[in-house]
Structure formats: C-alpha cells, structure tokens
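Lab notebook, bench 4. Still working through the backlog of constructs that have no structural model yet. Next entry is a single chain of 206 residues. Request: give me the structure tokens for it.
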Amino acid sequence: MGAVGDIINSKPIESLTIFFSEIVGKPLVDGAGILYGDAVKAKRISNTLKLEEKYKLVKSDESKPTALSFGYKLLEKASLEDDENLLEKWANLLGNATDKNYEGSIRKIFIDTLESLEPIDVKIFDDINKFCLSQHSKYETMVTLNGSDYEKKESLNVLLSLGLITYGVTITEGIKIGGHSPTTFHGLQNFKVTEMGQSFYKSVSK
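Model written out:
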C-alpha cells in the first residue's frame, strides 16, 4: 500500500475523520478513499462556476481586469460560499470592480466585509438601504428598529462592528449648554448607515 493509503488507514486519520464529520457534516475521507481536501476543492470549483454564471449576468460591456491582489482574494473567498444570495453579492462586487464606468469606491476591505456577513445580515442591510433610498432625505434618514427580534438586533451589532451603520444621535437645535447644542444618544434603536456602509452597499448591488 502506498504512502497515501497508509495515512488514510492510520488511527490518527480515523480520529480526524470522525472529528471532521462532527464539524462539517462530511468525513475527512469518503467511502472511495478521497481526502476531504479534494472534496473541498471540488466544491470550490463548483461555487466558482456558479459565480462565473452570475458574473456574466451583471458584467459591464466595458470591463477591465481588477488588481491581482483584489481579484485573487475575491475569487478565493467567494469560492467557499454556498448561499445563492451571497454568491450574487460576490458577483455584483466583481461586476462593479471590473466595470470601467463604475462611479463609486471599491476597496479590498469590502471583500472581508462581505465574507463576514451571514445571509440574514445581508438581507437586513439590503432592507435598511432600500428604506433609506426610498425616503426624501436618503441617507440622512434615521432608521428605527421595530420590535425586539433578537436575530435582527444581533445582525445590527454585526453591521455596527463592520462600520456599516452607526449609533443614532439627535442634536437639539436652538438650545445651547456651555456653547454646545445638547445631544440625545439613541444607540441602535435609531441608527444611520455610514458613508462606508453606503459605498459597500453600492458595490455589492446591481
């Protein structure tokens, strides 16, 4: 038996197989003796092919290559994504990054930001931005969290930690205390989308 076979049939690998199965729902080695890493590679290829299909739907007629550091990092991160809606966001980010006529900021940190978001976070952030853009005051709008949904609150904290939203603060005009107008801090009960959040939303939208 070759070296690979010896490793596959060893006690440590047997233990790792059980461990991997507990963590990701798949064994380190399948019934045909294929290492888990090979399965991951196959899945990454599958996800990248899906990304390519979605990218073709949104790519500009006037496209340009991205910087190698940006494009490679994006493809690497996106290849691990299974969720269809998040893959759409990755395709949109890639489409905007390669669009010669895109007007807006696209930064490498947006790749890390998108990778950090769960599907529920993306949905909530989409809803927040759509609400703001539907208002006359656009992003000057203070957004209010309705209800006490724990999942929504958790998502807001994620968005806050990534710099996409910020705590709401109201300034009371016409009154001066020590030469300054008094302010009211609203926490996340009332909040705003940051400039970074606006740029990120635009970059992953079409």
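Notes after review: Confidence is low (pLDDT under 50) at residues 3-8. The radius of gyration is 23 Å. Flag for follow-up if needed.
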